[in-house]
Specification:
- Two copies of one chain form a homodimer.
- Chain A is mostly helical and 109 residues long.
- Chain A has one domain.
- Helices cover 68% and strands 0% of the residues of chain A.
- The first copy, chain A, is built from four helices and no strands.
- In chain A, helix 1 runs antiparallel to helix 2 and helix 3 crosses helix 4.
- The interface between A and B is medium-sized, with 17 and 17 residues.
Chain lengths: 109, 109
Amino acid sequence: MSTTITTGWTTAEIEISEKVLKKAYERETKTLVKQVQEQVDNLEDVAQLWEIHDLLSSKRYDLDGKYDNREPMLVFTFAQLLKEGWINIEELTGIDKAKLAQISSLARM
Amino acid sequence: MSTTITTGWTTAEIEISEKVLKKAYERETKTLVKQVQEQVDNLEDVAQLWEIHDLLSSKRYDLDGKYDNREPMLVFTFAQLLKEGWINIEELTGIDKAKLAQISSLARM
């Protein structure tokens, strides 16, 4: 048998996944809101306002793609979030060990 | 003689125009900065952050086009700024009366 990326997720795993994704999204967007609030408080000219606009354009695009909850993508989604520090591996407790191993490996890549 | 849109601008008129445009741009962008600061202070969720992003996209596009300082466009640029309240007609003192009449007429359209 060759090593393959696991794609089957049980209902219980999906439930855990949705909760973790929701929490991570809240963390990331709260951090973004704080970052924008700080930058906006210290605004001195319109050029800096356009920098905030650029940041928001980029983060919005990033967030739209990153929280991919389709089953075959979940391993990659969690690996990315783990790598960026928006989740920790303990939060995924309850998910099959083989998947967790894949997530951890991908996060180190 | 038929009525035509005046397109010739003297050096003195161009100088006045540049000053007025600069001032109007500062007013409009300062107002935008204040508006964004207020909205960002009262941010409650990420949906409102995307609303601010949409506002900035729209205002940036608007501002890029609006402050058109090409000679044949100046009458239209000033009419638009006058209509929106970013300048008043007295600030254009020194510019030829026929042009001022055109600007006032266009602003009422």
